[in-house]
Amino acid sequence: MAANTTTLKGQPLDRPALDALLRRRMFYTPGFEIYGGSAGLFDMGPPGVTLQDNIISLWKKHFINEEAMLEVDTTVLTPYDVLKASGHCDKFTDWMCKDPKNGELLRADHWVKDTLKARLNANKLARGETVTEEEDPKKKKKAGKVAAQKLSDDVVKEYEGILARLDNYTGAELGELIVKHDMKNPATGVIPGEPKQFNLMFQTQIGPNSANVGFLRPETAQGQFLNFSKLLEFNNNSMPFASACVGRSYRNEISPRGGLLRVREFLMAEIEHFVDPESGKKHARFAEVADTELVLLDRHTQQDGKTDVRKVKIGEAVSSGLVNNETLGYYLVRINKFMEKIGVDMSKLRFRQHMANEMAHYAADCWDCELLTSSGWVECVGCADRAAYDLEAHAKRTGSPLTVRERLETPIEEEKWEVEPNRKVFGPLFKKDAKTVENHLISLSQEELAALSKQLAEEKKIIITVPGLADASTIGAEALKIELKKNTIHTREYFPHVIEPSFGIGRIMYSLIEHSYWTRAADDGGDEARGVLSFPPIVAPTKVLVVPLSNNPDFKPLTDKICRKLTSQGIWVRTDISGATIGKRYSRNDELGTPLGITIDFQSTSDNTVTLRDRDSMTQVRGDEDAIIDAVRSLVTGQKTWADIEKELPKFDGQKA
Amino acid sequence: MAANTTTLKGQPLDRPALDALLRRRMFYTPGFEIYGGSAGLFDMGPPGVTLQDNIISLWKKHFINEEAMLEVDTTVLTPYDVLKASGHCDKFTDWMCKDPKNGELLRADHWVKDTLKARLNANKLARGETVTEEEDPKKKKKAGKVAAQKLSDDVVKEYEGILARLDNYTGAELGELIVKHDMKNPATGVIPGEPKQFNLMFQTQIGPNSANVGFLRPETAQGQFLNFSKLLEFNNNSMPFASACVGRSYRNEISPRGGLLRVREFLMAEIEHFVDPESGKKHARFAEVADTELVLLDRHTQQDGKTDVRKVKIGEAVSSGLVNNETLGYYLVRINKFMEKIGVDMSKLRFRQHMANEMAHYAADCWDCELLTSSGWVECVGCADRAAYDLEAHAKRTGSPLTVRERLETPIEEEKWEVEPNRKVFGPLFKKDAKTVENHLISLSQEELAALSKQLAEEKKIIITVPGLADASTIGAEALKIELKKNTIHTREYFPHVIEPSFGIGRIMYSLIEHSYWTRAADDGGDEARGVLSFPPIVAPTKVLVVPLSNNPDFKPLTDKICRKLTSQGIWVRTDISGATIGKRYSRNDELGTPLGITIDFQSTSDNTVTLRDRDSMTQVRGDEDAIIDAVRSLVTGQKTWADIEKELPKFDGQKA
Known about the structure:
The structure is a homodimer.
Chain A: H1 15-24, E1 28-30, E2 42-44, H2 46-65, E3 70-71, E4 77-79, H3 80-85, H4 88-91, E5 93-98, E6 105-107, H5 108-126, H6 153-164, H7 171-180, E7 196-199, E8 203-205, E9 213-216, H8 221-226, H9 228-234, E10 241-250, E11 265-275, H10 286-289, E12 293-297, H11 299-303, E13 310-313, H12 314-319, H13 326-342, E14 349-353, E15 366-373, E16 376-387, H14 389-398, E17 404-421, H15 423-430, H16 434-443, H17 446-459, E18 461-464, E19 473-476, E20 480-494, E21 497-504, H18 505-516, E22 517-520, E23 530-533, E24 544-548, H19 556-568, E25 573-575, H20 582-592, E26 596-600, H21 602-607, E27 609-614, E28 620-624, H22 625-636, H23 642-648, E29 651-652
Parallel strand pairs in A: 3-10, 12-14, 24-25, 24-26
Antiparallel strand pairs in A: 1-2, 4-9, 5-6, 5-7, 8-9, 10-11, 11-21, 12-13, 14-15, 15-16, 16-21, 17-20, 18-19, 22-23, 26-27, 27-28, 28-29
Helix pairs in contact in A: 5-6, 5-7
């Protein structure tokens, strides 16, 4: 579990101070606040939106452009049938307990976690140990209000074991834990009821007919799978390839909290990389990354209730079987590189492997990229091997062949049971259901077809149950033939497997903000420590602040001119002509994470020189308008560093208000 | 009404050929097609997404950056109370008729439009006149199946008048028109039933409690209004300012059709420009644009049933009162400029003023930017003056002052009736409703408060009806004082008015595609005419196609090197290493709208020179790797034109497959 987190400069992180800064500068704000708020919904203000845009833009360049992926933009609204087939209607659920006394709805795994953490915390207090911020009971509204109370060492060990395996329990097991460990609701004094499944999808009605049930998508993945055949064709029928989609997804959380870390509406960026399963899931560019070291927390370490990480070269991790295949390994490296580019503190990053029960039954392997924040390790990217599960499910439901057909170099002779309906009889027999019945027959295994063929020959009819139809279907020999046919196979047909890196943009953004934050002692001893967000220029919401020394109208022409020149070069610039002191304005700007500041003073109006300030060092240089604009461009595009600029332009120590 | 539309080169537009191209190249595709589709939902494929991204990116630069707007990103999920206050729960509806025989649901205004157009068309056929594509009955599935039949001149005039005023009718009026003109449903032979209101919002439930009704937002505007006070503070309490939001909105259309032009889920880009109503809605930069000429179709012309446009300088349009104010006029010019930048055919653009009944009752003026397509004139941007309607509605409902407070230079003495509850009595009297009752009292007019004060003095109690509470509220004199107080007013407090330019990105994108489309005769006489999409480089989905002459492995190193160099400069590049002929690959690329192509041939492997091809002229130049990369960069950024490049680099007539 997380120790006390620190700022970029190693200071203890003062979370309330950071929260106040984010609110003051409108990075994000609770949605519908004047209406009393709506849990799990947040709006982003100006710096937040642009920070997000810059992260997305870099993401698209890093993944879609550099890896030649096929981007799609699919709809959020999704008809029932699609999510029934994908399993979400039945399985996209959380376990929810109802308090029998006050009717309060509680998420079962969170209830267990909060209760046990509060008890461990109370134990620490009782033993006079330090309580980490994450475990601070004041921050837990419900389960947390426990006074100092000692626990035996065995109990502590048991609780810690439960917490380490928390994602691993079924609903029934969570219910048993709640009863066994007497996890009463302090608000009512009773134990919450048995966990029940709550579907996390938002449901709605598409069109004026109430029978057309739809949902808001829980992930962008399904929209990509449904377009698989079109994308394959777009890619000139060439494999492997990856599609990608950036868009909102929805999750009707039972009781969201934790700011941007657990919300009901969120931005995802997902990649679906389609590979031939018989290729060993090799990746053409794996050799380029094989020597890259990643920080890994493997499944076995966690099963032992531990969280020790180790640095491993991805080439070794794949060849030892720790990471299942090259494609998965390649993406872990690309994810790592992306995090580095946007400015994540790489000492606060690890890849955690999913434990066996955490993964879907069909998944071969799954690794989460986690970032350390004041809320502990946060899952920011999931990178899973989904096998062929989704494509097969949709193909089965629709009869569309979501497969790859490849010409075989040597044709194969094959005998195969084939279904051949007699259209004239079969059609009228089943009317609108004819296609459903036929698709079902086609989907049967060779063994099943052989048995049916025998039955058809002996009894002159078969009786089958077709999913989706209420009654059993009786088919006579006059309507259907099932025969063993000899074919020469010229093509191989297969369902590709899918490697899926899935990014939660809001979580990445929040973690990045924490990693970029630090405070600077007030220079005159008067003010409080000042917050700084040291975003790299590439993601910083605004690149340059242009500040006239005062709102003297003489400063306006040069201010406007510099702004227009920068803007015309595509550089995001803002002016601050408020009456505040230069110091206050720079301080406001440091909080917004703007890396550079240009000041226009009285000297500027006579000799056209201005000063350029570096956010992180607070040092300034002076130069004429064009020299400074050149310096800005080279800093913003990453061609030069501040140290380079300091060598080229004279240092300036003048005006400081 | 639209004449036959033409391509960029003046050829008659073959819409089915264009549709086939867009489908083949996966610009967009019907959503959920393998599940039988879901009307009004479309997915975008690779070129569509990037075209959309480029339009949005230019939009943000043109509006948000150049005009220093405050961007927000708010949630789609919106609680019931917000949309009740904004009027959407009651008024965001279409009129829907039900066919009494087969239960079919029809949108009333569309029913009137389609039926009358079909009749006018049948009349033209009967008179041997040409039928424009838009009116082609084969394209209208339901109401359109009418044989040639003559109408009298009076009837033609009446029908044309109804069509010109179509947006102007109430539901009852539409019902009367349907009965009066005997608009039977050809499918059943009966007249559809009386129009009923159908709410167009998608409804859902937020959280596990079914009492928490929410909707998918119908516009991004409300999210901006709710953040008004925070944005004003972010803007250092300085007025005027504009906020902006790009995001999806939803409209549960009764029976969507028309491809991207009428969909249930769509991308909007909306600006809310907040101004002091007492400022005359002046705009600081209006003088810069006053001489710009716009193509206007005013309200009076339409009231006369006509559609004649005229070119007017915006300065004159505002001073004559045709356009209500400078801010509105300024935005019309900026919209015009934006359309020009992205490559819209400016001869197919007009600004149409809303007629009186088309506008909301509180709106001062409204103009739509319309683009001419094969579906007629399409509303792509609405630019309305919403007055203070929304801010007042939310302030009234929540008690939050969504106002601007300005320090007065000269204080004003004022007498005012004020409400003063006696907390100790008032609170217990109304319990949880106390705030609601108090807010209601505060919202009353001075006249109403004077009357209540008198009543309170005489009867020692008042009985009032508070919206939202079931029973009338009785308040005794012991719980409440209403007194005339003398105040010195140091600040002025006002609700700003809102000018709202609102962009439908999908409609703009579709219109732009039509405006950019043309066909080129096959050069060898064998193939069909080849489609070209002449997007300007700034919006083109891919800037450069890199094509090795064949898949000979000798070409690979240089192909990869050039791609990486271009990519590292942020230039969107693709390769095509399929086995197709160079001609086929260029043709595929012209359909994707890629402006430039680089070809690597045998000569390249010996002397490092490659050729560069211009999509529109099909001419080629040759140069070494770096010269060609420089040329690409200067063309893509708009610094040079193809004519410039042709002067600098030698023409190439060599390989042509």
